[in-house]
Specification:
This protein has 247 residues and is of the alpha/beta class. The chain has 8 helices and 8 strands; from the N terminus they run E-H-E-H-E-H-E-E-H-E-H-E-H-H-E-H. It has one domain: Spore Coat Polysaccharide Biosynthesis Protein SpsA, Chain A (Alpha-Beta Complex), CATH 3.90.550. Helix 1 links the parallel strand 1 and strand 2. Helix 6 crosses helix 7. It is globular and about 55 Å long. The chain starts with 9 loop residues before the first strand and ends in a 15-residue tail after the last helix.
């Protein structure tokens, strides 16, 4: 592990958002509950990326800070949000600052941050959680069955990497060079860089979030792409469930 375990003193949660005014309120309501369950200051930032709707207004109404960019790039959006969190946490030891990311179509459980902070206190630098699909409406019945057959929901270590459910110590994030401006798989790239830099990674099977099964993808080759592939595949040829969970 990092060798620097200790209590988190401050944290930030970043939500990249491209035209997400409809789904953002539920996401932010869940984050408010998660923030209220921890005893340290937590900044919630929505990165409104090339939005043509009321995403920024909805985010502010939901109590979030807003960073506006026009990159149309989930990696750039996550990086911009976390740069603002780091600015707000200037003066604190980066080893005591926790950074978390989720997505606008995702609802985190009340204990989401509390559990991540527990892993941080134990010395882990990166926490990888899992996702559960909140509503399969509009998909043929074989899709949820195929997804469940492939996705590892065990309580122990798992192989999944989702930007919708990821936490990282600020010191490890900085050592990894941050999120790269990738349109997809930015979460996988960060994990690889953090691991190469010596970060201690825990694949937390007890940390799940609820996400949407929307068909209109925000990131190419992301979670929506996986679900569309499952919908198109014959029962005998299921797709791999290892897609990135970008915004």
């Amino acid at each position: 592990m990092s060798g620097r375990p200790g209590c988190v003193e401050a944290a930030g949660v970043v939500v990249p958002a491209h035209d997400e005014e409809a789904l953002l309120p539920a996401c932010l309501a869940a984050l408010r509950r998660a923030v209220s369950a921890v005893p340290v200051p937590v900044h919630v930032l929505v990165v409104a990326d090339a939005c043509a709707d009321r995403t920024a207004l909805v985010a502010r109404a939901g109590g979030a800070r807003v960073v506006t960019i026009r990159a149309r790039n989930v990696g750039a959006a996550r990086a911009a949000g976390l740069a603002e969190v780091l600015r707000l946490a200037a003066g604190l030891d980066p080893a005591a600052v926790w950074l978390a990311t989720t997505d606008a179509d995702t609802v985190v459980p009340p204990g989401w941050l509390r559990r991540q902070f527990g892993y941080a206190a134990a010395g882990w630098d990166v926490v990888l959680g899992t996702v559960e699909v909140a509503d399969w409406a509009g998909y043929p019945p074989q899709v949820p069955a195929a997804f469940a057959a492939q996705y590892d929901y065990g309580d122990g270590p798992h192989p999944h990497v989702h930007g919708a459910n990821l936490g990282i110590r600020a010191s490890a994030y900085l050592a990894a060079g941050g999120f790269r401006p990738l349109r997809t798989a930015e979460d996988h790239a960060l994990l690889a860089a953090a691991t190469e830099a010596g970060g201690a990674v825990v694949q937390a099977g007890d940390l799940a979030v609820q996400t949407s099964a929307r068909r209109h993808a925000r990131a190419p080759l992301g979670f929506s792409h996986l679900l569309r592939t499952l919908a198109a595949a014959p029962p005998s040829a299921p797709a791999s469930a290892s897609a990135s969970r970008g915004s």
